[in-house]
Specification:
Its cofactor is FAD. Pfam families: FAD_binding_3 (PF01494). Its EC number is 1.14.13.113. One of its GO terms (biological process) is purine nucleobase metabolic process. This protein is an alpha/beta fold and 388 residues long. Strands 5-4-13-14-15-12-16 form a 7-stranded mixed sheet, with helices on both faces. A 6-stranded mixed sheet has the order 7-2-1-11-18-17. A 3-stranded antiparallel sheet has the order 8-9-10, with no helix packed on it. A hairpin with a 2-residue loop joins β13 and β14. The radius of gyration is 21 Å and the shape is globular.
Length: 388
């Protein structure tokens, strides 16, 4: 039995690992010739770390995960603490720590674990044909590949999704722009073991520790879509958007390197129920493109892979086995991923001032927060995963 894996991102690599555990041969095809991940880092919460452990790649998380032991919110203007608390109760209750990681390092190490020479790069999929027993991928370089099944982990701009759904889906602009990158840890900005977030006026500045003495940072600003900005004005743009904000935010702006800082207009896609068409399955952002507001994009792709792999346990290596496993995967995942996308959308709207009264109410709530409510929300999301 052979699976065609479209995409060598986190979803594709974790799927290959999950299927390999079940004795399924995998061929991996990646559109780009050289991996250049979008985004500097990402949050792998405890549910995602458990998935990496399950897939035999837990050592990667041990190496890359930052020491994020505490969490705090500060008023963006005054710099005053709104709430600050330990994440130890969360780790104790869910059985694993969260790991903010460099996206480039994570993807690189997952590829190295699989074997770089076993992945075919520069293979951008153009169209798909499927029969009852086979799937053929046609690539823009004129080549093709045939397998018994296909898992499309080709991202939010998935070329396979339209084939599975029978229609093209439009991405929805979430209403804000995100700048993200890496800087050396500077404790005048934030403690080196804490996820620190500054909030005011529907804007957000967040700093997370990752491995090797670095902070992952991001700035969020509600802005119109398509605003013309580039790297040459990046620092001055952020200085303008965060004029009057607290000293740590100004220190961070002055520390960033425009050449390694990403600017991204944030989108999601309206959740849909169809994740499978016969012997083709969608996975990761191709199946559930979300905003990053609850940090579950990478985690949900890892969950997808674990669930898909587990449904091949004990299955005959036949077409019937594939169809059954894929349908079970769809039934198991469609409600979970829809819930995550909508949770992220709701958090996005509150954080970024879609309703200013609601956002102000959240700020007021943060000033009364002991950590219990935030930890309860994180715990609920984490324990909703397949390896709770």
């Amino acid at each position: 039995m052979k699976a065609l894996i479209i995409g060598a991102g986190i979803g594709g690599m974790s799927t290959a690992a999950a299927l390999k555990q079940q004795g399924i041969e995998c061929e991996i095809f990646e559109a780009v010739k050289e991996i250049k991940p979008v985004g500097a880092a990402l949050s792998i919460w405890s549910n995602g770390v458990k998935c990496m452990n399950h897939l035999g790649m837990g050592h990667i998380m041990d190496a890359l995960g930052g020491p994020m032991h505490n969490m705090a919110y500060h008023d963006g203007i005054s710099g005053g603490v709104m709430t600050q608390f330990s994440l130890a109760p969360l780790v104790e209750s869910v059985g694993e720590r969260p790991c903010p990681v460099s996206r480039a390092d994570l993807q690189s190490q997952m590829i190295d674990w699989w074997g770089h020479d076993k992945i075919q790069f520069g293979k951008r999929i153009e169209r798909v044909e499927q029969t009852d027993t086979e799937v053929t991928a046609y690539f823009t370089d004129g080549t093709e590949a045939t397998g018994d099944m296909m898992v499309a982990a080709d991202g939010t701009h998935s070329a396979v999704r339209a084939h599975v759904l029978g229609q093209q889906l439009e991405r929805r602009y979430a209403g804000y722009v995100n700048w993200n990158g890496l800087v050396d840890i500077d404790e005048s900005i934030a403690p080196g073991d804490q996820w620190t977030t500054f909030v005011a006026d529907g804007k957000r500045v967040s700093i997370m520790p990752i491995a090797d003495g670095r902070f992952y940072f991001f700035f969020d600003v509600p802005l119109p879509k398509g605003l013309s900005e580039d790297r040459s004005t990046l620092v001055s743009d952020l200085t303008q958007y965060f004029s009057g904000w607290a000293a740590p935010v100004q220190t961070l702006i002055n520390a960033i390197d425009p050449d390694t800082t990403n600017r991204i207009e944030i989108h999601d896609i309206e959740p849909f129920d169809t994740l499978v068409k016969g012997n083709i399955a969608l996975l990761g952002d191709a199946a559930h493109s979300t905003t990053p507001d609850i940090g579950q994009g990478g985690c949900s792709a890892l969950e997808d892979a674990v669930v898909l792999g587990e449904y091949f346990v004990g299955k005959d290596k036949t077409t019937a086995g594939i169809l059954t496993a894929f349908k079970q995967y769809e039934d198991a995942r469609r409600f979970r991923v829809k819930d995550l996308v909508l949770k992220a959308r709701k958090r996005c709207d509150v954080t970024h001032g879609k309703d200013q009264q609601e956002t102000q109410a959240w700020y007021d709530e943060l000033k009364r927060e002991t950590g219990e409510n935030i930890i309860a929300g994180l715990r609920s999301t984490i324990l909703g995963g397949p390896l709770a």
